[in-house]
Amino acid sequence: MPAKLAEIVDEFASAPRDVVLEMLLEYVDALPPLPSDLAGHEGMEQVPECQTPFFLRAEVQPGRRVEMWFDCPPESPTTRAFAGILAEGLTDATVDEVLAVPNDLYQRMGLAAAISPLRVRGGSAILARLQRQVREQS
Known about the structure:
Pfam families: SufE
Order of helices and strands: HHEEEHHHH
Family: Belongs to the SufE family.
Protein name: SufE family protein
Domain Fe-S metabolism associated: 11-133
Helix content: 40-55%
Organism: Planosporangium thailandense
């Protein structure tokens, strides 16, 4: 797992349970805006496991670096925060680093104690689809 993502996981895992949700919501605005060529979700994959409309796209760049984009409505802060954690924690990550992220990432962060299991499953589905897209391109 990339060092930045591991740091985020450790911060959450060691935080008191009563502040975990507040910490999660700090990542709502970590999503960069979509480039114009992805407007309307052209070329993006929807994640149907999410309760809200959620779209993602990953591209393996030269040097095996992964570039990723996420789109989720602002009125879905928990789902946006999941994506924000990935966007921040996987910035400049390599294919191998993205594929090494454990599928129980959000459980390791202690989020299962702060949010519903359905939301955690949605976050895990985002990660799984991201990794599948990376795997298919590498």
